[in-house]
Design a protein that fits this description.
The chain is mainly α. The protein has six helices and no strands.
């Protein structure tokens, strides 16, 4: 297993660590935000390593976006569970993630790999930043709530747009003529 893929696996195993740390400290401490931010940073690091060292693998193409979704959904769900963000936003995000994962699985069954697009990367980045900001909301009390909400709306909009982009670019995978 190469270094980039090892970082992806580390990110996956950091998700339950983050959830436990959040349940201990909540948003009144920077510790959960630091754990989430460091874990999120491995996404950018593993991608850089994979591209710069030509370590791109089928495992990485599949697992990297999947692990990102596990991490961001865990972040959003603990925030919903604490009543910090509205459930409707997270439902939209989870719906998109499951829809695109289904598309990826269908594509893979036809030996097609759907790699992450720039829109998917922007979506993931915006979600990670949004979660970090909300995780810091109990500490950064001088920032008006509307600022956090703006980031959440941007994340939801990018989530919808990237989902539409994946569907439009890969519509042939659905084989709509044969349903």
């Amino acid at each position: 297993m190469n270094l980039a893929n090892k970082l992806t696996i580390i990110r996956l195993f950091m998700v339950p660590v983050f959830v436990v740390i959040y349940n201990i400290f909540g948003v009144n401490s920077v510790i959960p935000a630091i754990i989430f931010a460091l874990t999120s940073a491995t996404d950018f690091l593993d991608g850089h390593i994979a591209r710069s060292r030509n370590l791109i693998t089928t495992f990485g193409k599949f697992m990297d976006p999947l692990v990102d979704k596990v991490l961001t959904q865990a972040g959003f769900l603990v925030l919903v569970g604490s009543g910090i963000i509205p459930a409707w936003a997270v439902i939209i995000i989870i719906f998109r993630e499951l829809l695109i994962d289904g598309l990826r699985i269908l594509a893979a069954s036809n030996n097609i790999t759907i790699a992450a697009s720039i829109y998917g990367k922007l979506k993931t980045t915006s979600q990670m930043i949004t979660i970090i900001l909300y995780l810091l909301s109990g500490v950064l009390t001088f920032i008006p709530n509307i600022v956090y909400d703006i980031f959440l709306y941007i994340s939801v909009i990018l989530t919808i747009l990237s989902g539409m982009d994946y569907l439009m670019k890969n519509i042939q995978v659905l084989d709509l003529d044969n349903i």
